[in-house]
Amino acid sequence: MLHIVNKSPLERNSLAACLRIAGSGTILLIEDAVYGAIRGTTVEAAVKEALVRFRIVALQPDLDARAVADRVIEGVGTVDYAGFVDLVAEHRNCQSWL
Amino acid sequence: MTEGTAKKFMFVNRTAPYGTAYALESLEVVLISAAFDQDVSLVFIDDGVFQLKKGQQTKGIETKNFSPTYRALEGYDVEKLYVDQESLVARGLTEADLIVDVTVLPSRELGALMDEQDVVLSF
Amino acid sequence: MKFGILVNEGPYQHQASDSAYLFCKAALAKGHEIHRVFFYHDGVNNSTRLTEPPQDDRNIVSRWTKLAEAHGVDLVVCVAAALRRGIREENLAPGFRISGLGQLVESGIEADRLVVFGD
Buried b / exposed e across C50-62, counting CB within 10 Å, b at 16+? Predict the structure, then answer.
């Protein structure tokens, strides 16, 4: 399953809820959730730990817009909007953790 | 539509009632989806569990109390209501606090159920 | 592949409508079909022709209209959510139509994937 998260994990609990409830799959971080993809934050450890269970990907245009593309956690991938479309197509279903 | 061709629709409720309109408008889609003979389930996670709290009195905020609608869902053949155990515990609630009968599941079992769906709607 | 899209937030306040639009554009560019875009909650505010952004900003409403014109994308605005928020036929931008919530459920049934964009 594809899990789409769009909230900063530093402010809201949607990524935490996703990690608690989902067992595996792919997590796509878009909009403010891309702050969860970067090094040096208080959620970095949780995200790194989640990489064992999940493939984690951040949306490049959202990273670029927020000037954090240069500090993406190792192991977290990036996609553009075309890649976003591919991810939705590749997975049987998707859930947006709003 | 027969049972075999129905899609599995899951409505994910993660917001408290009244502070925003998401809970109410989510319920409106649930009622409509019942008319389409789909396999519908509702899950309540995080503050979404507050939607089911017994005894809501909304007169003072001049807003319609829509919580009785959860009890009417059975009449629409919407009978699969699941609540995240951890969310319930984290809010000091037990099943006895809820307005309807639900199935309380550990988080990961809820996640497994979500994996099985065709369409997952969240608001 | 056929995609259904749900937009739950209004324009300019939240990125949801922008993200949904860019997703649709990318999907169409890859040869996919957008079965329908359904606007619900404050998302109905994406459909008013009265929107007038400053010249140096994107026009979110007309961007949707152009997508409908160029690719025949069905833009559906929820009637109940629209009436509550003062959106009616007379102020509806071209390319949008007002209809019931059944259109959202139908999109979930007919599309291969339904993607939700919201707050």
Answer: ebeeeeeeebbbb
